[in-house]
Amino acid sequence: MKIEMGTILETKDLNYRYEGGKHALKNVSVKIPTGCKVAFVGPNGAGKSTLFMHFNGILKQTDGIVEYNSKKVEHSKKGLIELRKDVTFVMQNPDDQIFNVIVEDDIAFGPFNLDLPMDEIRKRVDEALKMVGMENERKRPIHHLSFGQRKRIAVASALAMHPKVLIMDEPTAGLDPEMVHRLYEIADEVNMSGSTVIISTHDVETAYSWADLVIVLVNGEVLAQGTPAEVFSMKDVLDKAGLSVPMVHGLNEFMSTNGRSNIYGRTMSTVLLNMRRGVIPGTLYVMRPGYTGKVYGRTGVYGSASRSFIESNNITIQLGFNAIERCVEDILNGNDASLYLDTSLDHVLDRKLLDVAAHGITIAVEECH
Questions:
Q1: Contact at 8 Å (CB) between 201 and 39?
Q2: For residues 16-39, average pLDDT
Q3: How many angstroms separate the first and last alpha carbons of the chain?
Q4: 360 CB-near residues (< 8 Å, 6+ apart)
Q5: DSSP sequence for 354-367
Q6: Which of 290, 270, 216, 294 is nearest to 43 (CA)?
Q7: What's the pTM?
Q8: CA 111, 115, 120 angle in degrees (round to 5)?
């Protein structure tokens, strides 16, 4: 696989042994491209969390090299402070990293330690709370929050650092389906701002549709790394890792083998396009925060600014999560759809429209003013 961009994180022959002798990482060599969305997949105990803690400098390798921006990670106090300004890590269990009593105090802790002006700290806290949908909980004691809410606070604390690399270990574990989609919406928003986003997940469907790069880790070793289509075509690797073939990928391969299509869509709406020949698609109406006029068909929302606007103005929506995909599904069924969309996330919509266009179907888009 060729990725024409720089490398922000890299390990070279990385080894790590825990006290007691367990060899947790074995000659791990990976390159994380700048601005990429990366999914690490593999069974429990594969070493994903251990590797992430090397990226952030929590653990120091037994031998081998870890580099950030082509410089070796230095495990000095100064070196780790500089690293963690840019590389933030959200642990699987939020209780392992939340230690303040009040929500806003926990989110402010990182920016405060960067010696930022108080106005900037308050601004970052406000932005982070808005992104995770917790702006109304800022004064609440953290021990009064549910597990899912505490997980959102852990993510907000990382976002408030304005990281160049956001690492999340099993970020969707323990979350309801709507919040799972909301979290990937946040990940897209962070990525569109120029940051690299790294996750570990057991959800092969999400890894296939969301990631630019997939890395398979088993027993502390890298078995494969490449695009989702490349990795999930490696049946021997999937067998060793105990991973299933994503449904969308399986359908793509079936249609390709049977001569129905040589185009690989990454989501269900695109992979089923060849079964919808002759449909006349509807129109997608795009609205920005501030728009209060007429809507067409079912209405969705994507992006923290848009969500904040519709919530503060009591605007009714029907597609509260995974909205771009669900709007496209409505349109491909011949209906119109409306979407409140942050301008910063236009690229996510453009990518989806290009996937559809590759199947010979053009969706008309009108911006509402």
A1: yes
A2: 94
A3: 42
A4: none
A5: HHHHTTT---EEEE
A6: 216
A7: 0.87
A8: 55
